[in-house]
Design brief:
This protein has an 8-stranded mixed barrel with strand order 21-22-24-25-26-27-28-29, surrounded by 5 helices. The model has no long low-confidence stretch (mean pLDDT 85). Strand 7 and strand 8 (172-180) form a beta hairpin. It is an alpha+beta fold. The termini are far apart. The chain contains 27 helices and 30 strands. It folds into 5 domains: 2-50, Complement Module, domain 1 (Ribbon); 55-180, Beta-Lactamase; 186-310, Beta-Lactamase (2-Layer Sandwich); 313-466, Reverse transcriptase/Diguanylate cyclase domain (Alpha-Beta Plaits), CATH 3.30.70; 478-734, Alpha-Beta Barrel (TIM Barrel). The structure holds ligand C2E and calcium ion (2 copies).
């Protein structure tokens, strides 16, 4: 006190607590120096005031300004009573002199989770606090989620008690702090669950109260958590729903229903769906909405929206784009460039890819595809965009100035080497020059693909440029199935017959049935165009069976009328061998044919592309047909890679030497030897030979010398419509 006066101060005060009328109260002791008797240093006034009520009020105000403290309760733990409360949340207020245990019990009712509630009551019971203090622990602490009331947001509070022994009374006193740590809790827990990725938007849903908060960045979610909550009300809360493409809006509404989210989370712990949205530039992008519980026990869900467009556009195998990616990126690029006609879309297909898988295994097949992709991107074509659009189909967007046809030819000549074995991959390419007029990218791909079908000999020229005339014959695959039914019903399909000539006699020995589609609008469509499409969509068998019935009807009619006829072969697609119903139908039809004694007229042409299918179905279909006296022809011999495997594993009656050999008879000196040996080899194993695609005198004379049994080709006759074929037969019969 002396020091205060020596400093020259006029006033000093000290606040402390003391027992007044049996209660602890805050008091203030103040000393004032007399100013009237300035010289007389002995004159002071000292008085003691009860400031308890005012002091607590001030304390309360101070507390309100500390953001995260929501309440402080002071208590006399030895006596087990609460003394006073200060803080923002009235719910946490204690009555004066309320027993600690009743108070704790009352507060615990705001804790929704039973284990947590029990733990709270146990830790802060008078008995436990005293015990822990005597054991030497002066502070206790725990965290719990609180619901103050149904209407209010849940929050996470940290509760701790600091205890001390009052040196004056020797009693243990304590202060309980309630601190709101919701924000810190979210910062710690939300990111762990969802912040590994770049989410565009995050919402936190209080599913119990059907409330949510939404924002674009996580940090503001946290700090706004206590302020900006709004009703969830399903999709309406998402301003983004307007961006969802029209056709998916209904589905979107269902997906964001709170009940759907909860149901999904109940089943799998995570719930997500994808939806297309249009962004500000009008581009459609793929969004993924995913939801997880932050805390399942209090029904707090975090939802996030993520743009997975790029991710969904990648081809896992090659690392390039997939079809979806190609469509979007190309569309964007072509819309941006000043002159889109400076680009071309290239479609590549590996003709014999199935063989790679068969011979080398699927893993090698994958490597082969990766190699092709690398060849494409590193080629001098320098594609702007490269994608694998499906299994062995690739597309590129190339600048016309880089479209060097020599380079393209060498790109198409791709080799696959494994364990010292080398295999030529036959790659074919269709080219579509981008036109000025607007067109969907998928339409460009289709046109390039269409052009590819016009390649007649990939060894000579493995590419073909699209031109308008091809469009006339363009068969829309989506419509094809329907058109096929209609075509069959309306007899648009016509069977043509190409005579096969006996080399020795020069007379007709047999014929091959070849299908023609006379389309009402498009006119004549080559089978080379629609057969691959029908094979892709699985409808080829219907057509093959239709041809078979027509042909056998034709033979039966001729026989019944005692007219001259020859055996006629029908082509079977590899698809047919995967179709057991088709196989049964053929066998049944064959039995009927036999009843009338015409089975020796039945012939089937199959190619090595059926090798895998025949091996797989193991039904012994070829044997069954041969037992019933049909003849089996191995078509296109030498065009692929399993010709010899086929020849070794199955029995054939006739071998058809592929056109590609016949065509080179005059050109390549080696070809003659090859054809010569094929014929010799066939004869050695008791098989007759047909040369296909024979067009010249030279070819005929060589084949005759080599002992080829039969000749088929334009030299003798093109495939003929039925009436003309009948004439051909009558003429032959008359000779
Ligand atoms: P393919 O079985 O190898 O049929 C022979 C093809 O060569 C026919 O073509 C025929 O018109 C043609 N050709 C015949 N002689 C000559 C010639 O001297 N020079 C040239 N350049 N070509 C000749 P087409 O009719 O266009 O048939 C193409 C392919 O379509 C056939 O090849 C066959 O694989 C398939 N195809 C035709 N009809 C059917 C059918 O009914 N079912 C099935 N599954 N495929 C069929
Ligand atoms: Ca054939
Ligand atoms: Ca053939």
């Amino acid at each position: 006190m002396k020091k205060i006066f020596l400093d020259g101060s006029q006033y000093a005060s000290l606040q402390y607590r003391r027992v007044l009328e049996g209660q602890y109260r805050w008091v203030s002791m103040e000393i004032v120096r007399s100013t009237e008797y300035r010289e007389d240093n002995q004159q002071v006034v000292m008085y003691i005031r009860d400031i308890n009520d005012d002091y607590l009020k001030l304390l309360q105000i101070a507390m309100c300004h500390t953001l995260d403290s929501v309440g402080i309760v002071s208590a006399n733990i030895s006596q087990g009573i609460c003394l006073s409360f200060a803080g923002r949340r009235d719910e946490l207020e204690c009555q004066s002199e309320e027993s600690i245990d009743t108070y704790i019990q009352r507060v615990s009712e705001m804790i929704p989770m039973p284990e947590s509630r029990e733990h709270f009551c146990q830790v802060f019971s008078q008995q436990n606090m005293l015990k822990r203090f005597t054991e030497g622990t002066a502070a206790l602490s725990m965290e719990a989620a609180f619901f103050y009331s149904e209407e209010q947001q849940p929050c996470v509070l940290r509760i701790n008690v600091d205890m001390a022994c009052n040196s004056f009374s020797r009693e243990i006193e304590g202060v309980l702090h309630f601190t709101d740590i919701t924000v810190a809790y979210l910062i710690e827990n939300v990111p762990q669950k969802i912040y590994q990725k770049d989410y565009e938007n995050i919402i936190i849903i209080d599913a119990k109260r059907e409330k949510m908060i939404k924002t674009d960045v996580l940090s503001s979610v946290i700090s706004d958590y206590l302020k900006k909550e709004e009703a969830y009300e399903g999709y309406r809360s998402y301003s983004s729903h307007r961006a969802v493409v029209e056709s998916e809006r209904e589905r979107f509404k269902k997906c964001v229903e709170l009940s759907a989210i909860k149901e999904g989370l109940r089943k799998d712990k995570q719930y997500f769906f994808t939806i297309h949205e249009t962004d500000k530039t009008g581009e459609v992008r793929l969004k993924r909405y995913s939801y997880i519980y932050i805390d399942e026990r209090v029904d707090i869900i975090v939802g996030a929206r993520e743009d997975i467009t790029e991710f969904s556009e990648k081809d896992v195998l090659t690392g390039g784009y997939n079809r979806r990616g190609f469509l979007r990126i190309t569309e964007r690029l072509l819309n941006k460039v000043p002159d889109r006609t400076k680009y071309a879309v290239l479609f590549f297909n590996v003709k014999n890819f199935k063989v790679v898988n068969e011979l080398f295994g699927v893993e090698s097949g994958d490597v082969a595809l990766q190699n092709i992709f690398k060849t494409l991107i590193h080629s001098k074509l320098s594609p702007v965009i490269t994608a694998r659009v499906e299994s062995d189909h690739f597309v590129c967007l190339v600048e016309n100035k880089n479209l060097d046809f020599e380079e393209l030819t060498s790109v198409c000549d791709n080799k696959f080497i494994k364990d010292g074995k080398c295999m030529n991959l036959i790659i074919r390419c269709g080219i579509f020059y981008v036109e000025e007029k607007p067109m969907k990218i998928s339409g460009m791909i289709d046109r390039a693909k269409l052009a590819k079908r016009y390649i007649t000999d990939e060894y000579v020229q493995p590419y073909m440029v699209y031109d308008q005339s091809m469009q006339v014959a363009y068969v829309d695959k989506a419509k094809l199935a329907g058109e096929l039914q209609e075509g069959i019903a309306k007899e648009q399909f016509k069977v043509y017959y190409q005579p096969v000539i006996d080399t020795k006699t020069g007379k007709i020995a047999s014929a091959e049935a070849l299908i023609r589609w006379i389309h009402p609008d498009k006119g004549f469509i080559s089978p080379a165009l629609f057969i691959p499409a029908l094979e892709e969509n699985g409808h080829i068998s219907e057509l093959d069976f239709y041809v078979l019935k027509k042909v056998w009807q034709f033979i039966s009619d001729r026989c019944e009328n005692n007219k001259f006829v020859v055996p006629i072969s029908v082509n079977l697609s590899w698809m047919d061998f995967y179709d057991e119903i088709m196989m049964e139908k053929i066998l049944k039809e064959m039995d009927r044919f036999r009843e009338n004694g015409r089975e020796h007229m039945a012939r089937f042409e199959i190619t090595e592309t059926s090798y895998a299918a025949i091996r797989e179905n193991r039904s012994g279909i070829l044997e069954s047909l041969r037992i019933k006296n049909a003849k089996i022809l191995l078509d296109d011999f030498g065009s692929g890679f399993s010709s010899f495997g086929m020849l070794q594993d199955y029995d054939f009656d006739i071998l058809k030497i592929d056109m590609s050999f016949i065509r080179k008879i005059g050109e390549n000196p080696k070809t003659k030897s090859i054809v010569h040996s094929i014929i010799g080899m066939a004869h050695e194993i008791g098989i007759k030979t047909v040369a296909e695609g024979v067009e010249t005198e030279e070819q005929v004379s060589f084949l005759r010398q080599s002992g080829c049994d039969y000749i088929q080709g334009y030299y003798y006759s093109k495939p003929l419509p039925e009436e003309e074929f009948v004439e051909f037969l009558e003429k032959a019969d008359a000779e």
